[in-house]
Design a protein that fits this description.
Elements lengths: L2 E5 L4 H15 L3 E6 L6 H4 L6 E7 L5 E6 L17 H6 L3
Parallel strand pairs: 1-2
Antiparallel strand pairs: 2-3, 3-4
């Protein structure tokens, strides 16, 4: 499987650690964690907490590297190189 997308829940610890570790071990190339409500901890979404779209990419060493996108940041996805969205567009869709 090339991509898994998760919407971060109130049980955000699972989304940012347990699932991340599982997906990494399974060799999932790309994992998106969409924190539309600013639920995650400081390590994951910063302080003050902000809506954050995290894209994890599997490296050649089998570990994830993360890029975090907020506000007007343009999403960068190896799976979808022609994707033309900014983080705020994704968060606005929840309303």
């Amino acid at each position: 499987m090339k991509l898994i997308v998760e919407v971060v829940s109130t049980n955000w610890q699972d989304d940012y650690s347990l699932k991340l570790t599982d997906y990494e071990a399974l060799g999932i190339q790309e994992y998106w964690a969409i924190d539309y409500a600013g639920l995650g901890g400081r390590l994951h979404i910063g302080y003050p907490k902000r809506l954050t779209f995290s894209i994890y990419n599997l490296t050649d060493e089998g570990e994830y590297e993360v890029q975090r996108f907020r506000g007007s940041d343009r999403l960068l996805s190896p799976t979808f190189p022609n994707l033309s969205l900014v983080a705020d567009q994704v968060f606005a869709a929840r309303q």
